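BUG: 3D viewer hangs when loading the predicted structure for this chain

Environment: internal workstation, default settings.
Expected: structure renders.
Actual: progress bar stalls at 90%.

Input used:
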Amino acid sequence: MTVEITSPADATGLPDTQRLRKRAIRLLRELGRSNAELSVALVDDVTMARLNGVHRHMPRPTDVLAFSLLEGEHSAHRGSLLGDVVIGFETAARQARAAHRGFDDEVARLLVHGTLHLLGFDHEHDAEAREMRGEERRLWRAIRT
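Structure tokens produced before the viewer hung:
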């Protein structure tokens, strides 16, 4: 099991990446994906707005984007890599403050959310959203320490 976490070299205000890596490993185990690889990118609002604009036609920052390799044109070449979870750490910091949560916990919640998207979960319809929220709660309980 491999978890690769990247961030801008000159960034300040990043979450504890060691703790995030440990949580990601527990998350993969809990999902029954012990042999999987996961890429996590921590990006600032400017980068996230650019990515969101290119991939979702919404040129503004968002908290998390997920780029799955389980389907699509490159899926045959993915090996054990599930895909990329991109977390906007500046947006996550604002959300953590607004929700009176710890920053590292907010980033971990976004990791769970993004990883579920990699695996095909979505929240476009009510039934899907309920299922995804239930799975997010279950996984959060498993990794929050």
